[in-house]
Write a structure and sequence with these properties.
alpha+beta; S16 Ribosomal Protein, Chain: A; 2 domains; 3 helices; 5 strands; Ribosomal_bS16
């Protein structure tokens, strides 16, 4: 049986309150649990001591038995220590999902299409810039001849 230390939601609509529980991984989020080891109230200020309350001894005991904390609970456990010890109850490291910031396949395809379009437009602009440079002297000659014709007609 794999055990999880996780949050179980309580409270009413738009007023969340969580219990930190040890439960079988197959049990529903708010369903059956083995033991309640703490509480978390996200409505309180972040610096409030009442925001997260966890029995560190019970948490350490369950971790020794093989219970795995969820990401959020692991953060909480990394901030508390047992009495007489300097190390936290659980060593949590930031960023366990290396692909989280990468876009999906469709988004990568769209980025590639945009890059191809931009390259095509840049190539067309480059060709357009080269072509009028060759025709410019003929236009200048025509522009110089037009004022001379106007002067002659007067």
């Amino acid at each position: 049986m794999s055990l999880k230390i996780r949050l179980a939601r309580g409270g009413s609509k738009k007023r969340p309150f969580y219990s930190i529980v040890v439960a079988d991984a197959r049990a529903p989020r708010d369903g059956r649990f083995i033991e309640k080891i703490g509480v978390y109230d996200p409505r309180l200020a972040k610096d409030s001591g009442e925001r997260v309350k966890i029995d560190a001894a019970k948490a350490a005991e369950w971790i020794k038995k093989g219970a795995q904390p969820t990401e959020r609970v692991a953060r909480f456990l990394s901030q508390i220590t047992l009495e007489g010890e300097s190390a936290p109850v659980y060593a949590w490291t930031h960023g366990t999902n290396p692909k989280k910031g990468e876009p999906g396949k469709k988004a990568q395809e769209r980025v590639k299409e945009r890059a191809d379009k931009a390259a095509a437009l840049a190539e067309a602009a480059k060709q357009a810039a080269e072509a009028p440079a060759e025709e410019a002297p003929a236009e200048e000659v025509a522009a110089e001849a037009a004022p001379a014709e106007e002067a002659a007609s007067e």
